[in-house]
Specification:
The chain is mainly β. The protein has two helices and 28 strands. The strands form six sheets. Strands 22-23-24-25-9-28-27-26 form an eight-stranded mixed beta sheet, with no helix packed on it. Strands 2-8-7-4-5 form a five-stranded mixed beta sheet, with no helix packed on it. A four-stranded antiparallel beta sheet has the order 10-11-12-13, with no helix packed on it. Strand 27 (about 330-335) and strand 28 (about 340-345) form a beta hairpin. The longest helix has 18 residues, at about 1-20. It is elongated, with a radius of gyration of 26 Å.
Length: about 350
């Protein structure tokens, strides 16, 4: 009886597999090929695209999209004139034999140009709290604000940058590791590192107004704004754009050079369409196109640390603020006893 049941089940299975539609995954039927087997390209590059028909299906038509936008194909060639760079996925919608399937291919879209090299000139030196483990630095209405890190030492500060005097200070709970700040419409937005939580303060008196949770970005590193949106780094190649009204992560850019995708972006400052970003653990900063993610310049701050007092707790360069009033940048580091006003210029 058991043998008969098995035979009936086998016959039914064969009948349905013969009469029904194929369950073969699209990836086993078709394969997108870009310049053959290449997977890295540069912005605006012309690329030969083809669809490998693995099972020799009768294809009626194929269309391609990247980031939800249709790609024009001319003479089997596409133009990668895509604004946002980084990790990309091209999707082919294949209509064949009365069916429609989607197949995808991942690739990296890099910058068309190598970053330019910049250097600096020290204009002024100002006192800075040597115990401040600097994470965020930003001018707002000509006043300098600073956030500091480490559990048990994290704080938000309002400073007289000329004297180093702390005008107002609030400490974070010992469970939080403070990170970057940015200030928009009289509100200070402050990140914490790995708690998945940020705080909002009144810029005038540093009273806490609210808190917010992170979305897809799991950590908080640097913060900046362009007057409308907030930019948030998270220790990966991504810089997220947040809506300041509800703190949702609406989209992101990815930081890239002409050779690779870069993931060491830390403290941020937005100036005239560019994001200036500390490179984590390095004496350098990046100049990033805020729309594309292309790293257009690298500022070598080598030697700046030699101008501060040496001590056991001295740490890396971190903290960058732009003064609109003076047209200059202010930089410091973690547990540095000096704040530097600098002019940035091409080398």
């Amino acid at each position: 009886m058991k043998i008969v049941s098995i035979l009936i089940f086998t016959c039914i299975s064969l009948l349905f597999s013969a009469c029904g539609s194929s369950n073969t995954p699209a990836s086993e039927l078709f394969e997108i090929q870009l310049n053959g087997k290449e997977s890295e390209f540069q912005q605006n590059e012309s690329v030969v695209i083809s669809l490998k028909n693995v099972k020799n299906k009768t294809i009626e038509n194929v269309s391609y999209t990247i980031d939800g936008k249709a790609l024009a194909v001319s003479d089997n060639t596409i133009q990668l004139d895509i604004l946002k760079l980084g990790n990309k996925t091209i999707i082919a919608t294949v209509n064949y034999e009365g069916k429609s399937e989607e197949v995808s291919k991942n690739f990296k879209l890099l910058s068309a140009n190598a970053p330019e090299i910049y250097t600096y000139e020290i204009i002024n030196e100002f006192p800075h709290d040597q115990k401040a483990f600097t994470q965020g630095l930003e001018f707002y209405k000509d006043t300098l604000y600073e956030s500091t890190g480490r559990k048990g030492q994290s704080s938000l500060r309002k400073l007289d940058y000329k004297t180093g005097e702390i005008l107002k200070k609030v400490d974070l709970d010992n469970t939080y590791f403070g990170e970057g700040i940015t200030i928009l419409n009289d509100k200070i937005y402050m990140l914490t590192w790995q708690s998945g939580l940020g705080f909002i303060y009144d810029a005038k008196n540093l009273d806490k107004i609210d808190s917010f949770k992170y979305g897809a970005s799991k950590e908080g590193w640097g913060f900046a704004n362009n007057g409308e949106k907030l930019y948030k780094s998270d220790g990966t190649e991504k810089i997220w754009l947040l809506n300041p009204d509800n703190l949702t992560e609406e989209t992101h850019i990815e930081t890239v050079t002409n050779k690779s995708i870069f993931n060491k972006t830390n403290e941020l400052e937005y100036v005239d369409g560019k994001i200036y970003a500390n490179v984590w653990q390095k004496e350098s900063m990046m100049i990033i196109n805020a729309k594309s993610g292309a790293i257009e310049g690298v500022i070598n701050f080598g030697g700046l640390k030699d101008n501060v007092t040496k001590h056991a707790d001295l740490d890396v360069l971190n903290g960058i603020a732009y003064s609109k009033e003076r047209g200059t940048f202010f930089v410091t580091g973690k547990n540095w006893d000096k704040l530097f006003e600098v002019k940035i210029m091409k080398k």
